[in-house]
Amino acid sequence: MFRTTDRRRFLQFSAAALATPALPGFAFADAWPKDKTIRAIVPFSAGSTIDILGRIVLDPVSRQIGQTIVFENRGGAGGSIGSAQVAKAEPDGYTLLVNAAAHSGAPAAYPNLPYDASKDFAGIACFGSVPNVLLVAPSKGIKTVKEFAAKAKEGNMTYSSAGVGSATHWAAERFRVSAGFKGTHVPFRGGPEALTEVMTGRVDFVFMGISSALPFINDGKLVPLAVSSAKRSPTLPNVPTTLEAGFANSDYNYWTGLLAPAKTPKAIIDRLHAEVTKALALPDVKEKLAKQGVEPSPLTPSEMDAMNKREIDLNIKIAKAAGLKFN
User: Which domain CATH number covers 149?
Assistant: First the structure.
């Protein structure tokens, strides 16, 4: 039989126990990050646009949270190999995915993905959007996008990409279908390899993120003919958009951002979103991103999830309507 004091202690303990289910999320977020390395998986090769932008943004985030963030490049299959690794990772905030529009393009290119690009991931933050630019080698002697399109209709053009289903692949397909010419796709494991083949003239053209292409444009090794963004890029103000040139529905939204495994606690997602937002507001980060041709595209985690789902559905519809066969 309980005495009054024992009964009071029991009731207090019971009340505390009943309250604990509401605490883990907050406690987990307060404890995160512990003294444990955070892995940022980039599903493309080092030096790709995604890799460059991820390092610009996450380096200051690492300093802000006082924890090391190690980049791991896991290229291949249009980004799906690295993405699958993150989808299966423990949702504890220590394995993150730096990806781009390739993420929402993969389901259309790879119907049998070992993960669900929408349900198995949680959006954290968008770093911004990067225009893809149509590039050819100077040796091709092509000066304008209209001249390029006319020449492409004369024969079977080859075009490289950072992999089947990557953003570079989708941008090229959107333009090719709009311009009405046939071509042969030559995929690589990452952007640097795709650019090299075009520079040598072994491949006719590529659509590549400005971040990766700009050094070669500035050195005169590649000629920019058009950007696939909805408006001109401040980085290449004299280069027209594919829409301006008269190619309807050829624009492509190339976003880059951070995601996590779907069941990562909301408190950690919100903390990471806040830290990325803080990093994006730093003057030196803004300057570095601007030099890479990145245009701000702030999204909340829920907005990013909605955009991802919307683009997945759109890409699947486009692939079916255009009769695109990726494998």
Answer: 3.40.190.10
